[in-house]
Amino acid sequence: MAKKKRKKTKVASKKRARKVVKLAARKPAAKKGNGNGHLPRVSSKPFGQDGKALTGVQILDFTHVQSGPTCTQLLAWLGADVIKVERPGVGDITRGQLVDVKGADSLYFTMLNHNKRSITIDSKHPQGMRVLNALIKKCDVLVENFAPGALDRMGLTWDYIHKLNPRMIVASVKGFGPGPYEDCKVYENVAQCAGGSASTTGFREGPPLVTGAQIGDSGTGLHLALGIVSALFQRNRTGRGQKVLAAMQDGVLNLCRVKLRDQQRIEKGPLTEYSQYGEGVPFGAAVPRAGNDSGGGQPGWILKCKGWETDPDAYIYFITQAPVWGPICDLIGEPTWKTDPEYATPRARLPKLKAIFGRIEQWTMTMTKFEVMEKCNAVDIPVGPILSMKEIAEEPSLRKTGTVVEVDHPTRGKYLSVGNPIKMSDSISEVKRSPLLGEHTDEILKDVLGFKANEIAEIKNSGALSAPKKEEKAA
Ligand code: COA
Question: Which residues, in sequence order, are CB contacts of 400 under 8 Å at separation 6+?
């Protein structure tokens, strides 16, 4: 009986397999390609020039300041057509913040808005709403990071947008997710504090510290971009848009997850890899600030190098990774530590980390950070030179990969920017300068939205796309 059943199953699965083969043969993709029935493994176009990953995706970019613009800039680098909607006369507030060249858009703005087009629209003007409605019908994604409720107050509720365009994805950055703080306005450092970063950054003896990396703004923008691309992917199956929310508190916490890990460990005993353990300082109820301790299981610390007395960046991050303990001992001139039971095992070293790093520092101080790096990398010891922004700006290898790029701008001239950090073999990013305020208003009305000349004149004459005249402003 069992044999009969197995036989039946075998026959059925053979039939299924034949069906699958037939179906596969019918796939149009198999007809294209290199003549052998397979798609070419390598593009026939030059490296990285076979179109862009997000070609064809249109983004209605209602973002400002940093978090939202980081997201849409990334999507633009990946090939999306990003149409930035700005308030007439003012634009994104960052255009005029931290200005270094009088009369030109600031670096703050230009470095966050590459590869986008700009249209000015007063969203509170009926003719402005007419243009916005057309954009909503045309675009795939609306991205915004206004204060909570601002989009609704414009009349652009989810229901309204979804009715106009059921395929539209509405993606938002907010400071907090649903809960007691959902109505709060939030900037970078607020998010760093609320997301657990500040309480765990800095030295034990000092106050909480914020970090230079914009994990609240740019970090959340990156999270949102992933949400948008995933929603586009899902839309291929469902045909429907959806809401995507990235809250800055959540984004920061996601980047601080090792600290939530430690919070749970601390409830079971001391965090032995923290230098405070070796120093005999008792732990409290919450994860302490760990100075320059490594976040993982391999102890590390920042050590002085030659020139530290005058150069604030003459330091190196040194990791005493267990598998290379032997080479470390040889390099620093302590070969007996390889076998001495007081030093030979990671557990034996934990209470003495401060003294061990002190001894390693005596060695690193005899060389520049680059010499230390060379000596250590030769024997696979992981170290990180503290690179200043000046050194990074001048680093030839970063220029070569396009991670640091020089961009020309009509009103400010040449400036440096960070290019796309994501490298793709078929979708290279060409970094194009940020748009001037309203630079593409006409072409968007005409070419993207298909308004006729008389309609464009009507919209323009209404004042919906231009700054209010001085007297109107004063009144
Ligand atoms: N036409 C007409 N009005 C416009 C407009 C346009 N094109 N673009 C924006 N506005 C209006 C908005 O409708 C809003 O008006 P309302 O308050 O009357 O409804 C107003 O401009 C201000 O928007 P808001 O977002 O409140 O700006 P803000 O400068 O007061 O606050 C933030 C800035 C960043 C604090 C706030 O936007 C915020 O908390 N955003 C979410 C979190 C975030 O992204 N923070 C990080 C920023 S890097």
Answer: none
Indicate if ligand 1 lies below 6 Å from the C-beta of 429: no
* Token pair in block for residue 158: 């989810």
Q: What is the pLDDT of residue 49?
A: 65
Chain CA centroid to CA 327, Å: 36
Does the pTM exceed 0.70? Answer: yes
What Rg value do the Cα atoms of the chain yield, rounded? Answer: 28
- Closest of 243, 213, 242 to residue 66, by C-alpha: 213
In this prediction, the residues of the chain whose per-residue pLDDT falls under 50 are: 1-36, 473-475
pLDDT given for residue 59 in this prediction: 98
pLDDT tens digits for range 154-171: 999 999 999 999 999 999
**What is the SS3 assignment for 136?**
helix
The DSSP code for 429 is P
Residues 331 and 318: their CA atoms lie apart, in Å, by: 13
Distance 150 CA to ligand 1 centre (A): 7
Tell me the backbone φ, ψ of residue 328, rounded to 5 degrees: -60, -45
Ligand 1: centre distance to CA 342 (Å): 60
Shortest CA distance to 71 belongs to which of 141, 155, 138, 152? 141
Ligand 1 atom index nearest CA of 185: 39
Strand partners, 417: 405
